[in-house]
Design brief:
This protein is an alpha/beta fold and 342 residues long. It has eleven helices and eleven strands. The protein binds N-carbamoyl-L-aspartate and zinc ion.
Length: 342
């Protein structure tokens, strides 16, 4: 195939940050996607409808002139979130979900929930008003191996949560394991997002010829067995699995450091990366459902009407995008891509 035309996709898990970084990264997402679920892990996090409204205004102000883009906002669940916050979020119309981070699990998650068992009143309210819960599904227990944290989270927290709230609609974000695929497949009112890096790379990418900080994200890349399982899920045509890049920009300084930040920047070339992953298993015909249909269907939003086109063409991913401070290194910088969005 030399050319691929699809309904314009959306990104169901995205970090755009704030300030200068927001202005630098947002145009890339706007070029590829119509809408995106915006992660609330700013410093301080987006916890109230008022904070989400103000952040949404700053995002809208950063959309390049003449372009269409809709930020879909989320609130950051903390130990202090109340059922009234859920009712207010639903009434706002623009807050589409709540995001759960276990405290300390990933970048800017210090205000996250310390004990998932404490949030039952909030989950009850979410189930009642039908507000989806987005999970960073990893335990933070230092005794648990970093490659096992998703599996252990599912067993220890997600299985009991689903038993308590079977009708609560949950997205297990950026899944990385066969365990997650199996659980999502077997459970009602459960979906998952999948990133390009987890479809394209296994954990060897972290150590190819030396340590590779730009491949470090959380949940961390896993064994090839797991990469194959999520690639199979993404290309299966099941509406339970849809696109969420988890594009998470950090400056070059903060990645190339003795204690580098977690997060891969893929907003520049997300659709090209997904196309390559799907083509690798001869499943380009499944890309449109994954990228453009199942996400809006889950969130109860209309599918987009416009289209995008990708063409078969070799091009080189830039080494760095320039920002005012340190640069921003895209995922797979300096390497060749075989698809290009036109
Ligand atoms: C994300 C970030 O940088 O905000 N990092 C990451 O590795 N994915 C946070 C997150 O989604 O875990
Ligand atoms: Zn994320």
């Amino acid at each position: 195939m030399q050319e691929l035309t699809l309904t314009r996709p959306d990104d169901w898990h995205l970090h755009v940050r704030d300030g200068e970084m927001l202005k630098a990264v947002l145009p890339h997402t706007v070029r590829q996607f119509s809408r995106a679920i915006i992660m609330p892990n700013l410093k301080p996090p987006v916890r109230s409808v008022a904070e989400a409204a103000a952040y949404r205004d700053r995002i809208i102000a950063a959309i390049p002139e003449g372009k269409q883009f809709e930020p879909l906002m989320t609130l950051y669940l903390t130990d202090n979130t109340e059922p009234e916050d859920i009712v207010a979020a639903k009434a706002s119309g623009f807050v589409k979900a709540l995001k759960y981070y276990p405290a300390g699990a990933t970048t800017n998650s210090d205000s996250g929930v310390t004990d998932i068992g404490k949030c039952d009143r909030v989950f009850e309210a979410m189930q009642q008003v039908d507000m989806p819960l987005l999970l960073h599904g990893e335990v933070t227990d230092k005794a648990v191996d970093v490659f096992e944290r998703e599996k252990v989270f599912i067993e220890q927290h997600l299985v009991p949560l689903k038993q308590r709230f079977p009708k609560l609609r949950i997205v297990l974000e950026h899944i990385t394991t066969a365990h997650a695929v199996d659980f999502v497949m077997a459970t009602d009112n459960m979906a998952a997002t999948i990133t390009p890096q987890h479809l394209l790379f296994n954990r060897n990418a972290l150590f190819k010829g030396g340590i590779r900080p730009h491949y470090y994200c959380l949940p961390i890349l896993k064994h090839e067995i797991h990469r194959r399982a999520i690639l199979q899920a993404a290309t299966s045509g099941s509406p339970k699995f849809f696109l969420g890049t988890d594009s998470a920009p950090h400056t070059r300084d903060s990645k190339e450091s003795a204690c580098g930040c977690a997060g891969c920047f893929s907003a520049l070339h997300a659709m090209e990366l997904y196309a390559e992953a799907f083509e690798g298993v001869d499943a380009l015909d499944k890309l449109e459902g994954f990228a453009s249909f199942y996400g809006p269907d889950f969130y109860g939003l209309p599918r987009n009407r416009e289209q995008i086109t990708l063409v078969k063409k070799n091009w080189r991913i830039p080494d760095e995008l320039s920002l005012t401070e340190s640069g921003l290194v895209p995922l797979r910088a300096g390497e060749e891509m075989t698809w290009q969005m036109v």
